[in-house]
């Protein structure tokens, strides 16, 4: 027997996928045997998701099933409510479920198709036989099995009715009873007033479909003159102005363009009277007079809508063909322009003529003259926009209010055309100065349009400063390149925002109103390709291509070179590494994976099955993920530009044969099919997934702990000395190394260290053991033995248990002692110091939490921060790491390192052995603005300052920083603050010599630390505090470089 499934899932967005999963092995037994059966869709099918091939099934089988939606990060939305249940006893069968989330019997159609062969979608023919269907009650997830796939379940994403669905339903409901255009504008007003910013994409699409006649207007016997439409439009403008921000300005501008005019002439009680006079003229034939009166005059005064403009265009076309008096034709032309003005369909020239009397007449007249002669400059357009916006700002509620805004939108669209002409000119293609001039003009106009005004203003400032230098000097090229890449990131962000805003919204609305799929599909793309951000992306790529040529850059950046030989495996595209981690047990250990990775935030674990990675974007060389890649021997490269990644993705798509990931001597990554001999050799060698063995210790339980004790400086009295294995065992390597740094700093004077104390691991162990030892041990055992995908089911239990223990524990003696010992510090950083950090083969970078800016005199805040660090033994990434390396939870213990908060203006990470070139003769340094979280975790896109310093103090600046934001703290505020960074004001970018000087100082300090550790290469973290013009270096952590 054969069976297929289909579901309508209009709520899916770009990048999401739909699976069916159930209680039978055929449907992966609620995730136990796999992630479920993947469905597919396309532009013609959407919102229907169906199976590509039928499944084979035994006769008379009864099973339960549900659909899930999975996004690129692995988050899953389950259908709420009851399990779907079906009894199959005919062949073949096509199951069609009406709507995702509606599991009731009315939402299901199960069709037995008569006849053999392929299963085809069902029709509504009466001979179709509905099979027996039952429903089983259930609590959100399938009740017969653990009902989770091999992915993280984000419960916050599981909803029965999204806001989007509510808004679409509301629009659909109101539209049915609001038939005229005036009433449909009332729908827009009501929905916008009720739902605010979240409804704007749907409102924009609704208006677009109305104005393009895909949602039709009709009369309903009511009589409302056009002044009612104008009044509604004014009210909508006022609401939209209140809602507008940098994230939605592009949507609001499109909505405003689709509303009628509320100019003074349309706000009077009886507007558009000229058509009445025309209809009563005596110099036109009766037939034309009748048509004008009935099809235009009466219709406009009863129920105006955009169709009336089409009617007028039809009639005036006939008048222009001749046979009518000149006086009548002239009057009709005037009325036609008035009607276009009412529907805001006038051209740029006419709109500027209309507002010329209210603004600088000379500037508009000069612009119109230049336009007529096709000699308008970008500077003219920009200056005129600035003039109009200044007038609008000074007179926001005068009669020019709407026309000034629409003129600005028209000028923006005209600019788009002019920029296209310039960018397609051969004279621009090779002239970098011209490209930079166009780039700055584009940035300035995007700011005028309200697109990311704060950050684009910063990018404009940076380009303006850095482009003044020698454009072909490598250090200047690197500096400008960093800024332009920042602008490119914003262009990609805008594209993602448009898709996110419109993709599912327009699909849902289009489906509700039966809009042709082609019209729905091009809506989002039309926004992107007609927006100035498209030109920004285009000109930025032109400049970056020149920069890559000048710097002779390969298209790839090495993170971890791995073994010096090609790596063989199966090529897979992956949105996020967690997608693989959760199905690792299903992957063949004999077939390593070569991953084309779309996104990484720097905190991920690398699955053992992954032998090589090519990442779409750049990554800090010293981020946690980069360290893990080198530690695992995983080949890891990043793409210098996105197009290279997309080309590689396209070329490898659909290849199922074993492939080869190799790197040429020039640093070029190649992924290509293997030869027959290479595949034979691979079989003989038996190379499979990576194996990593880590030495760890499971301690004997010693629970006779009385009271709490913290450790500060080591002295003979407490029996612990720096570097002593006993000290490491009690406090963790991080704490012991931090104390040793204090000793080193006193001897060299090259850097400072923060004051610190440590809460030993036995405090946490003691608290848990006296409260719930057996329950805690049982949960750990279950966690150690479960499949990777089950982590998210068990984590909440152990987190809740620990939180309950810590909340009920009295830590006041400990907190008082910390407060006393940390004086005069006001704020502290509470950091992990686990027994599973800084091991010989396990750096443990980024596995556990740190909490910054904690007031040491606030016992509750301090207790909460300590508890958060203790609990971080059970972060998802920490558990995944232990499970991959087969480390039992018994081996994981947590001391807590409390350090005085360093208010860094810059942060840095140093490897005393260059990790990229495996070079002992140079130190590798990365520096970023603000605190170290951005640099270590790579949680935002961009680059740090990158430089190498040779042992003889020769400095090479590899790259300049372009992170958009820095994280800062200070004594006056308990909250960490994210600040947009303007590198035209950052000393290291303004004056590269300052960057070279600080690089030398950091390298010198790092090498002293390395020497103190017997010449063992070190991985060092620290900060730079700028005080009275002086740069003070702090080192807060060191460990053996992996």
Automatic annotation (TrEMBL):
- Spell out the family assignment given in the record's similarity comment: Belongs to the PEP-utilizing enzyme family.
Where in this chain does the entry annotate a coiled-coil region? none
A Pfam family (short name) is GWD1_pHisD
State the organism named in the record: Halteria grandinella
User: Could you tell me the keywords of this UniProt record?
Assistant: ATP-binding, Carbohydrate metabolism, Kinase, Magnesium, Metal-binding, Nucleotide-binding, Transferase
Q: What is this protein called?
A: CBM20 domain-containing protein
The cofactor named in the record is: Mg(2+)
Q: Relate the assembly described in the record.
A: Homodimer.
Q: What SMART domains is this protein classified in? A: CBM_2
User: What lineage is this protein's organism placed in?
Assistant: Eukaryota, Sar, Alveolata, Ciliophora, Intramacronucleata
Q: Which residues form the CBM20 domain?
A: 1-102
Molecular function via GO: ATP binding; kinase activity; metal ion binding; starch binding
Q: Gene3D superfamilies attached here? A: ATP-grasp fold, A domain (3.30.1490.20), ATP-grasp fold, B domain (3.30.470.20), Immunoglobulins (2.60.40.10)
């Amino acid at each position: 027997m054969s069976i297929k499934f289909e579901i309508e899932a209009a709520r899916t967005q770009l990048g999401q996928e739909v699976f069916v999963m159930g209680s039978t092995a055929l449907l992966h037994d609620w995730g136990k045997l796999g992630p479920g059966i993947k469905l597919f869709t396309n532009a013609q099918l959407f919102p229907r998701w169906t199976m590509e091939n039928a499944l084979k099934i035994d006769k008379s089988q009864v099973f339960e099933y549900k659909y899930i939606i999975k996004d690129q990060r692995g988050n899953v939305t389950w259908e709420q409510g009851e399990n779907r249940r079906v009894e199959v006893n005919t062949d073949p069968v096509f199951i069609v479920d009406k709507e995702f989330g509606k599991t009731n019997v009315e939402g299901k159609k199960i069709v037995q198709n008569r006849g053999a062969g392929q299963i085809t979608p069902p029709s509504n023919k009466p001979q179709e036989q509905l099979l027996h269907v039952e429903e089983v009650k259930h609590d959100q997830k399938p009740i017969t099995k653990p009902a989770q796939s091999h992915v993280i379940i984000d419960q916050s994403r599981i909803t029965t009715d999204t806001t989007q669905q509510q808004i679409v339903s509301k629009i659909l409901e109101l539209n049915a009873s609001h038939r005229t255009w005036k009433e449909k504008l009332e729908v827009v007003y009501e929905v916008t007033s009720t739902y605010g910013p979240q409804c704007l994409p749907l409102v924009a699409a609704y208006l677009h479909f109305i104005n393009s006649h895909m949602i039709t207007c009709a009369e309903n016997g009511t009589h409302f003159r056009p002044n009612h439409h104008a009044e509604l439009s004014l009210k909508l403008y006022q609401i939209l102005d209140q809602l507008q921000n940098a994230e939605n300005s592009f949507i609001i501008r499109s909505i405003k363009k689709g509303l009628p005019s509320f100019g003074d002439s349309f706000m009077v009680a009886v507007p558009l009277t000229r058509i009445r006079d025309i209809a009563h003229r005596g110099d036109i034939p009766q037939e034309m007079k009748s048509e004008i009166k009935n099809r235009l005059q009466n219709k406009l005064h009863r129920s105006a809508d955009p169709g009336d403009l089409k009617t007028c265009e039809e009639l005036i076309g006939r008048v222009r063909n001749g046979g009518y008096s000149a006086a009548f034709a002239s009057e009709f032309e005037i009325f036609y322009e008035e009607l276009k003005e009412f529907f805001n369909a006038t051209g740029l020239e006419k709109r500027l003529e209309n507002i010329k009397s209210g603004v600088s007449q000379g500037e508009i007249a000069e612009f119109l003259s230049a336009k007529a002669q096709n000699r308008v400059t970008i500077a003219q357009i920009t200056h005129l926009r600035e003039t109009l916006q200044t007038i609008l700002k000074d007179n926001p509620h005068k009669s020019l209010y709407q026309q000034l805004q629409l003129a600005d939108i028209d000028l923006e669209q005209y600019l788009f055309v002019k920029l296209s002409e310039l960018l397609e000119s051969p004279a621009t293609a090779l002239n970098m100065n011209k490209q930079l001039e166009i780039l700055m003009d584009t940035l300035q106009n995007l700011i005028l349009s309200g697109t990311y005004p704060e950050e684009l203003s910063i990018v404009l400032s940076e380009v303006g400063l850095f482009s003044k230098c020698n454009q072909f000097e490598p250090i200047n090229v690197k500096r400008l390149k960093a800024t332009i890449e920042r602008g490119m990131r914003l262009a990609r962000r805008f594209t993602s925002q448009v898709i996110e805003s419109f993709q599912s919204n327009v699909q849902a609305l289009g489906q509700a109103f039966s809009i042709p799929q082609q019209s729905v599909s091009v809506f989002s793309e039309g926004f992107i390709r007609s927006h100035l951000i498209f030109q920004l992306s285009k000109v930025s790529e032109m400049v970056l291509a020149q920069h890559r040529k000048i710097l002779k850059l390969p298209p790839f950046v090495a993170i971890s070179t791995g073994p010096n030989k090609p790596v063989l495996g199966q090529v897979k595209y992956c949105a996020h590494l967690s997608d693989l981690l959760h199905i690792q047990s299903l992957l063949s250990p004999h077939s390593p994976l070569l991953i084309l990775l779309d996104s990484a935030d720097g905190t991920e674990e690398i699955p053992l099955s992954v032998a090589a990675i090519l990442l779409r974007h750049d990554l800090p060389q010293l981020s946690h993920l980069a360290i893990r890649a080198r530690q695992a021997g995983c080949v890891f490269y990043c793409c210098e530009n996105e197009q290279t990644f997309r080309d590689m993705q396209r070329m490898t798509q659909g290849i199922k044969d074993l492939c080869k990931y190799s790197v040429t001597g020039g640093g070029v990554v190649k992924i290509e099919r293997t030869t027959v001999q290479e595949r034979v050799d691979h079989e003989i060698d038996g190379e499979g997934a990576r194996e990593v063995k880590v030495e760890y210790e499971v301690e004997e339980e010693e629970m006779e702990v009385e009271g709490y004790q913290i450790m500060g400086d080591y002295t003979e009295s407490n029996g612990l000395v720096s570097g002593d294995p006993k000290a490491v065992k009690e406090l963790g390597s991080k704490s012991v190394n931090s104390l040793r740094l204090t000793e080193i700093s006193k001897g060299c004077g090259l850097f400072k260290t923060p004051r610190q104390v440590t809460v030993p691991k036995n405090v946490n162990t003691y608290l848990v053991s006296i409260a719930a030892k057996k329950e805690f041990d049982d949960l750990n055992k279950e966690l150690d033995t479960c499949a990777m995908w089950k982590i998210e089911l068990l984590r909440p239990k152990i987190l809740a248990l620990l939180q309950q223990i810590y909340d009920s524990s009295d830590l006041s003696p400990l907190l008082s002692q910390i407060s006393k010992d940390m004086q005069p510090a006001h704020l502290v950083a509470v950091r992990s110091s686990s027994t599973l950090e800084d091991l010989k083969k396990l750096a443990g970078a980024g596995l556990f939490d740190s909490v910054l800016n904690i007031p040491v005199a606030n016992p509750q805040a301090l207790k909460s921060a300590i508890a958060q660090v203790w609990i971080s033994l059970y972060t998802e990434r920490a558990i995944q790491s232990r499970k991959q390396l087969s480390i039992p939870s018994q081996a994981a213990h947590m001391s807590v390192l409390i350090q005085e908060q360093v208010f860094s203006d810059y942060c840095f990470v140093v490897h005393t052995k260059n990790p990229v070139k495996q070079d002992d003769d140079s130190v590798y340094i990365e520096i970023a603005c603000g605190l170290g979280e951005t640099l270590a975790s790579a949680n935002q896109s961009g680059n740090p300052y990158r430089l190498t310093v040779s042992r003889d103090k020769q400095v090479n600046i590899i790259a300049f920083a372009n992170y958009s934001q820095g994280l800062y703290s200070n004594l006056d505020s308990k909250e960490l603050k994210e600040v947009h960074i303007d590198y035209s004001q950052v000393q290291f970018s303004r004056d590269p010599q300052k960057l070279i000087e600080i690089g030398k100082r950091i390298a010198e300090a790092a090498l002293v630390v390395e020497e103190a550790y017997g010449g063992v290469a070190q991985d060092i973290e620290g900060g730079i505090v700028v005080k009275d013009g002086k740069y003070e270096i702090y080192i807060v952590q060191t460990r053996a470089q992996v």
